[in-house]
Design goal:
Elements: E1 5-9, H1 15-27, H2 36-41, E2 46-51, E3 56-66, E4 69-77, H3 86-100, E5 105-110, H4 113-117, E6 122-123, H5 131-137, H6 143-149, H7 155-158, E7 162-167
Parallel strand pairs: 4-5
Antiparallel strand pairs: 1-2, 2-3, 3-4, 5-7, 6-7
Amino acid sequence: MAQEFTVRRARTSDVRGIQALIEPLVQERILLGKDLVVFYEAVQEFRVAESADGEIIGCGALHVMWEDLAEVRTLAVSDDWRGTGVGHALLDRLLEDAAELGLSRVFCLTFEVPFFERHGFADMGEETVAPDVYAELVRSPDEGVAEFLDLARVKPNTLGNTRMLRRL
């Protein structure tokens, strides 16, 4: 029997559930930890998957980086719900959000290469952006932007991860 869940925009009341959901992945060094305040500041970027009984069972965020570029961040699914389509539904919703925003490229930094390949992402290799855009992006204090640009200061965060890109 299929388990029922819905994907919706995150609310501030979901933030502690989001943090609890990703904490095991932070401990496993799959995701970077974030302070609670960072989740509240970014709550509008998040979608959550909610089970029929109201439990937050998955989350993911879409962070706009430039006029045509965003990053999928913090995509996570509860262990009990892995393999049930929750991650796919969340990613599909984030890609829909990206299209609605008029973006043409979506980036991710991941260990889950086959999962993202199934959604049309490919290893981006050395690809970055035009020099004028690079000059603007390099000013950002955001770690995700630094990871996209493959800056030396974030190399410890990216070890073993693959930088992937999907064109919409």
